[in-house]
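Lab notes, practical 5.
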Amino acid sequence: MRVRRCQALWPDAGPRGRRRAQAQQRYRERRKQRFIELEATLDSMSARLAQLQGVQQQNQALQEQMGELGALLRAKEAELARVHSQLAASSEGGSADTPLAFQDGTGEVRMNRIQALVCVHRPELP
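Output from the prediction step:
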């Protein structure tokens, strides 16, 4: 088919002209195929990029959440240390009216388990 097509385009081209025309036709087909492959690669990479951007957003949200949880943990650890020091002070003869309570996130003062256990064993504490 290629030979006929080339002959139809250049009937007086001769054998060398036909070979040249055939080579040009093969080159155009290879170039077209390469273009198709590059488009497929582009589509694949675009989909992968979108997926990675979603993962990056998820990662960022988790990093923010981890920072918030870390701050909350540090606050709770500080509160626990304060309660432990109050408990140690009260068991070493500190004043009986030393509060063994903490504020929760709403600002409400609540009795903790340590105080509840101490109150059971030492009813004189508030």
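Observations recorded by the TA: The longest strand covers residues 101-103. The chain has a mean pLDDT of 78.
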